[in-house]
Automatic annotation (TrEMBL):
Pathway: Cofactor biosynthesis; biotin biosynthesis; biotin from 7,8-diaminononanoate: step 1/2. It catalyses: (7R,8S)-7,8-diammoniononanoate + CO2 + ATP = (4R,5S)-dethiobiotin + ADP + phosphate + 3 H(+); (7R,8S)-8-amino-7-(carboxyamino)nonanoate + ATP = (4R,5S)-dethiobiotin + ADP + phosphate + H(+). The gene is bioD. InterPro entries: DTB_synth_BioD, P-loop_NTPase. Its EC number is 6.3.3.3. GO terms for cellular component: cytosol. Catalyzes a mechanistically unusual reaction, the ATP-dependent insertion of CO2 between the N7 and N8 nitrogen atoms of 7,8-diaminopelargonic acid (DAPA, also called 7,8-diammoniononanoate) to form a ureido ring. This is ATP-dependent dethiobiotin synthetase BioD. The active site is at residue 32. ATP binds at residues 12-17, 43, 99-102, 185. Its cofactor is Mg(2+). Homodimer. Its main location: cytoplasm. Belongs to the dethiobiotin synthetase family. It comes from Hymenobacter roseosalivarius DSM 11622.
Length: 206
C-alpha cells in the first residue's frame, strides 16, 4: 500500500492538484491534516471535486482553521494551539494520500513545524516543485531538509512550462526519482485530473 505525504517547495505550487491526481490514480483515500482557510473552498472539497472514482474516502481534517494564513497564526487567531498528539493517521486498508500545508518549515505551533508532523507520521513524500525564478533554490532546500531527516522521497513533480535546465540540474544534483510533470492547464477539472491519473497509474505500475 502507498501512504504518501504530498509536500511542496511552498504554498500554491500545486500540491492539491498533485494530491488529486494521486488519489484518482491509486483510488486512494485523502487526508489534509491542517486546513488554514475555509473559503472559497478547502483542499479536501477541491480533491473531492476533481476525483471521480467511487472508492476514495475523504478523512476529516484534524484542524480546520478559518484564516488563510500560516497554521500557527491561523490557530492563534482562534485561541487554539495545534498539538502534535492530535494527529493520528486515519485507519484505512486503502492507499492514503496526505497533503501538507505550504512548505516543510511552515510552523504549526511553537517548536513544531510541518516537517516534524511528517517525521511523526513516518510517511514517504511526493515533493511538488513549481517553475519560477528562485524555484531551484527552494527545491534543493526542501530536498536537503528531507534528506537530513532520513525522510524518503518517492518522487518529485515539476509543475509548469517545461524548464529542462532547471529540471536536469535538480535531478542530477539530488538523484531523486521524478514523477510525470504537470503542464499549465486552461482549466483544472475532473477530466484533466483523470488524464494525468492514467499517466501516474502507469508510473506506479512500472
Ligand atoms: N498545472 C497547472 N495548471 C493550471 N493551474 C494550476 C496548475 N497547478 C496548480 N494550478 C492552480 O494553482 C493554484 C494553486 O495550486 P494548489 O491549490 O494545488 O496549491 P497548493 O500547493 O496545494 O497550496 P496550499 O499550500 O494552499 O495547499 C490552484 O488554483 C490550482 O488550480
Ligand atoms: C493559507 C495557505 N493557502 C496555506 N494553506 C498555508 C501557507 C502557509 C505559509 C507560511 C509561510 O511559509 O510563510
Ligand atoms: Mg493545497
Amino acid at each position: 500500500m502507498e501512504q504518501l505525504f504530498v509536500t511542496g517547495i511552498g504554498t500554491d505550487v500545486g500540491k492539491t492538484l498533485v494530491a488529486a491526481i494521486l488519489t484518482e490514480a491509486l483510488q486512494a483515500d485523502y487526508w489534509k491534516p491542517v486546513q488554514a482557510g475555509l473559503t472559497p473552498t478547502t483542499d479536501t472539497a477541491e480533491v473531492r471535486r476533481l476525483v471521480r472514482n467511487p472508492v476514495s474516502l475523504f478523512h476529516p481534517e484534524a484542524y480546520r482553521l478559518r484564516l488563510p494564513a500560516s497554521p500557527h497564526a491561523a490557530a492563534a487567531a482562534e485561541n487554539i494551539r495545534i498539538q502534535p498528539e492530535a494527529f493520528q493517521l486515519p485507519i484505512t486498508a486503502n492507499h492514503l494520500i496526505v497533503e501538507g500545508a505550504g512548505g516543510l518549515f511552515v510552523p504549526l505551533a511553537p517548536g513544531f513545524l510541518l516537517v516534524d508532523l511528517l517525521a511523526q507520521l513516518g510517511l514517504a513524500t511526493v515533493v511538488v516543485s513549481r517553475h519560477y525564478l528562485g524555484s531551484i533554490n527552494h527545491t534543493l532546500l526542501t530536498l536537503e531538509a528531507l534528506h537530513r531527516r532520513g525522510l524518503p522521497v518517492r518522487g518529485l513533480v515539476f509543475n509548469g512550462e517545461p524548464n529542462p535546465a532547471t529540471e536536469e540540474f535538480i535531478l542530477q544534483h539530488t538523484g531523486v526519482p521524478v514523477l510525470p510533470p504537470l503542464r499549465p492547464e486552461a482549466v483544472i477539472d475532473a477530466a484533466v485530473v483523470s488524464h494525468y491519473a492514467e499517466v501516474y497509474r502507469a508510473w506506479f505500475e512500472k
